[in-house]
Design brief:
By secondary structure, this protein is α/β, with parallel strands linked by helices. It contains 2 helices and 6 strands. It has a 4-stranded mixed β-sheet with strand order 2-1-3-4, with helices on one face. Strands 5-6 form a two-stranded antiparallel sheet. Helix 1 packs antiparallel against helix 2. The chain is globular. The two termini are 14 Å apart. This is 4-oxalocrotonate tautomerase. Pfam families: Tautomerase_2. InterPro entries: Tauto_MSAD, Tautomerase/MIF_sf.
C-alpha cells in the first residue's frame, strides 16, 4: 500500500509529472511486487523561494514512500538503486540530486477499505520481501 509523495522545484508539464510517477510506480512493482490497485501518489512542485534543497541543488528531487513495515534491507537497497537509475535516465539529473525517504508503519496502524485493519487484508502480494 505505498503512498508516494514527490517534491521538487523544477517546472514540469503534466506529461512529465506523470512520467515521474509512472517511473516510481514501476520501481515499486518490479522490486517489491506491489499491486497497481494499491499505488497512490501526490506530486508537489514548490516555488524556488519556498523550498531549500541540500547544497542548493537545482535538480533536487525528494521522494517519500509510506508503506507497510516488513521489507528487508536488501529489498530497500534494490529499490533505492532502481529508483535512482530510472529517474536519472528519465530526467537527466545527477544521482546525488535524488533523496528517497521510506516511512514504514505496521499494518495494524492502517485502516482502509471501509475501516478494515490492513493486517487483515490480503493484498495479493508479499510484504516481507
Amino acid at each position: 500500500m505505498p503512498i508516494v509523495r514527490i517534491e521538487e522545484t523544477t517546472r514540469r508539464d503534466a506529461r512529465q509529472k506523470q512520467a515521474v510517477i509512472a517511473t516510481v510506480f514501476n520501481s515499486l512493482r518490479q522490486v517489491l511486487g506491489v499491486s497497481d490497485e494499491e499505488l497512490q501518489a501526490r506530486y508537489q512542485q514548490y516555488q524556488p523561494e519556498d523550498f531549500v534543497a541540500p547544497g542548493g541543488m537545482a535538480d533536487y528531487l525528494h521522494i517519500e514512500i509510506v508503506m507497510f513495515k516488513g521489507r528487508t534491507l536488501a529489498s530497500k537497497k534494490k529499490l533505492y538503486r532502481h529508483l535512482v537509475d530510472s529517474l536519472v535516465t528519465l530526467l537527466d539529473i545527477s544521482p546525488a540530486a535524488i533523496v528517497i525517504l521510506l516511512r514504514e508503519y505496521e499494518a495494524d496502524n492502517w485502516g482502509m477499505r471501509g475501516g478494515t485493519v490492513a493486517s487483515e487484508i490480503d493484498f495479493g502480494y508479499r510484504i516481507s520481501v
